[in-house]
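Notes, p. 3: input format for complexes.
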Amino acid sequence: MSMADRDGLIWMDGEMVPWRETKVHVLTHTLHYGLGCFEGVRAYNTEKGPAIFRLQEHTDRLFRSAHILNMKLPFTKEQVNEAQRQAVRENGLDEAYIRPMVFLGSEGMGLRADNLKVHLMVAAWSWPSYMAPEARDLGIKVRTSSYTRHHVNITLCKAKANGNYINSMLALNEAIACGCEEALLLDNEGYVAEGSGENIFILRDGVLHTPELTSCLEGITRQTIFDFCKELNVPVRERRITRDEVYIADEAFFTGTAAEVLPIRELDGRVIGQGKRGPLTEKLQGMYFDAVKGKRPENLSWLTAVKD
Ligand code: PPE
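Output follows (308 residues plus PPE):
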């Protein structure tokens, strides 16, 4: 089903608009130059109804991205939180992927346009599994990308900017064409960075390792794994990792809102650990799914109910 041809409502600049009517002009600035930013957020069904996972953190990151790109959002954080709740609620969704995006309008063209309006849209739809459902148990096959992840001073990777995803799409399409499910990008110095839309963790001798924030997005799921590891007394180190360290890891997994917690069973044809989801990955994945579904009393503050 086309994303454009659906029933439902999309929050657009402060109003709920019928899904098929939320159109932009072909001269929309962001469509041409990629200067925009977005979030990927999920709502899960809990005992108390649908709830958004770590909503405030996502909204905060959206505002940080906009600030980095020098885009001034004409809405408050409270309004943006409310828009996301409304998008899930008014579409009658129990579970949803939520996509807020900040973009520049069609008020002007060219790189020098200085009369551009900053717009915000928030859509929500059902997007159950990012990869084949069995990938959660069995893990996925990954390939080191021939594309380098953006250098920190090219497009400013701390912003979850639309244009940064050219890099992700080139890497992902290459990996898929090679029979893999995801790409692992290296940073401009050749160290492990991240997946096309996920952070990466590796386990070695009881210590979890993940790249530093200069090589990857400040993932909210990544932070959630840090929080769980603190609780489990599993040490986590943020440091430079080489691709061959991933080959010899005991376990490896990706994290992200869309991908959730996803085991990696193979990188570049080398089997990682036992070649299936390892025990710590399974434990963290279980904690994650329990937390998002409101089954962990200690993490209830991460959930924002969609209904009043
Ligand atoms: N790195 C990148 C490059 C990235 O895009 C994401 C999220 C992450 C790490 C993990 O961040 P977080 O979701 O806060 O844990 N990618 C979003 C877009 C995926 C898509 O297919 O679109 C997402 O997971 O929603």
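The chain has eight helices and 17 strands.
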